[in-house]
Input
Amino acid sequence: MNSANFNSTATVNNVFLFMLVISVFLLVAITVTMIYFVFRYNRKKNPTPKNIESHLMLEITWIVVPTLLVLAMFYYGWSGFKFMRTVPEGAMTVKATGRMWSWQFTYDNGIKSGELNVPLGRPVRLLITSQDVLHSLFIPAFRIKEDAVPGMETHLWFLPDKAGEYDLFCSEYCGVNHSSMVSKVIVMTADNFEAWYEAGEKAEGAKKEAPVPQGAQLLEEKGCLDCHTTDGTIETGPSFKGLFGKKTIVITGGKEREVIADDMYLKNSILHPDRDVVKGFPDIMPSQEDNVSEKEINEIITYLKGLK
Ligand SMILES: [Cu+2]
Output
C-alpha cells in the first residue's frame, strides 16, 4: 500500500467490503443450513433420537475456518490502520482546533479558516486538539475520524484526490450546539489553493502591521459568534447588541443580583464566564483565558461599546 496512489477512502472501503462479503456469506450459509436441518432432521422423519458422537474432521473445520477468517479480518484491518496512522512525507500540516461549537483550521503561514481548504493531490496531515471539551473530527468522504482532546494533540492524514466540497462534522456529543458544529473540506486545484493561501497570507501580514485585529474580526476568529449574535437575536448566549452599559440580572454563587455591563463585567465574563451567569441562560461557556489576550479583550470591549 503506497500513499502515492492509495488513500484512506480506498483502505477503509476495501476492509469494509471484505468484512461485508464474509458476513453476508456466513449469514446466508448458516441460515440456509438451519432451514435445511429443520426439514431434514424433523421429528416426523426421525421419531427416535440418535446420540451423535464426535466428528473430528467437522470439529477441526469449524475451528480452523472461522479462525482463518477472523485472522484475515484482523490482518486486513491492522494493515489499513497502520497505513492510516503513517503520515506520508511531504504532507501539508494543518492544525485543527475544536471548540464549542466550531472548527478552526490554522495553516503554517498563520492563516486561520473555519473551513478546511486543501490542494488536490497533496496529502494533508491534521494536528487536532480542543480548546474546551471532547470533540471529534469526522470527514466521511475520506473515511477518517479522530478525537479532539483538550491538552493533547492527536493526528490524522488523508489524500484529497477528488476536487469538490465535502462535509466535516463533530462526531462526539459536545453540548447543546453540537449539531451545528458542521464545516466543509474544500479540495481545490493546486493553483487555486496557492492563490487562496497567498491571499490569506497577505491579509494575515496586513493584520500583523495593525496593532491588534478589530473587535468584529476577533469575535469571528475566537468563535464568540458561534453562540452570541450582534443583531439582537438570542441564540445559545445573550446577544451583544446594546449590551454595554445595560442593567443585567446575573446569578452569582446561586444568588440573583443586578449588574451594569461595564468594562470590568465584560472582561470578567470572557475570562470567568461561570462567575456571573446571565439569568435565563445555561452556565456552559468555557473560560477564554487561553484564547484571548488582554489587548484582544480591550479591542472586543471597544467594539461592543459601539454595538447600540
Ligand atoms: Cu464538538
